[in-house]
Design brief:
mainly alpha, about 130 residues, single chain, 3 helices
Length: about 130
Amino acid sequence: MTNVHILTDSDRIEHSGVRGMKWGHRRARSTQTRSTQTRSTQTRSTTGRTKFRGNSKIKGMSNGELKNRVARLNMEQKYKKLKSSATQTGKKVVLGILIGSATAVASIHAQRGLEAGLNSIDKIIKNR
C-alpha cells in the first residue's frame, strides 16, 4: 500500500514581501504618522528612558512632572558621583596590590639572575 499526499494551497509557503528587498530593511514611509511625529522630538537613552530635546516639552510639563524630573536627574547625578568615587578607590587599591606584587616578583627574578651569573663566573675562574 502506498501513501500518497496531495498538495493543497495550504501546503505552499509564499513570500508576500517586496521583491529584491533586503531582510531587516524597511521601506521609507511617504508620510509620518502621529506616533512617529511625537517620537521624533524624543530620543531613547541606553537605559530606555526618554530624553527630551529642546525646551518645548519642558514648557508643557506641570509643576509636579517637572519636580519629579528634576528629582530624578539629581538622584542620577549623585549616583554617578558615588559610583565613580567607589570605583576610583577600588582602582587605587588594585593598582597598589599589582605594583607591589610586580615589584616582589621582579626583585626575586633579578636576585636569581645575579646569583646564576655569579655562580657561572666562579666556575670560570675555578676552571682556569
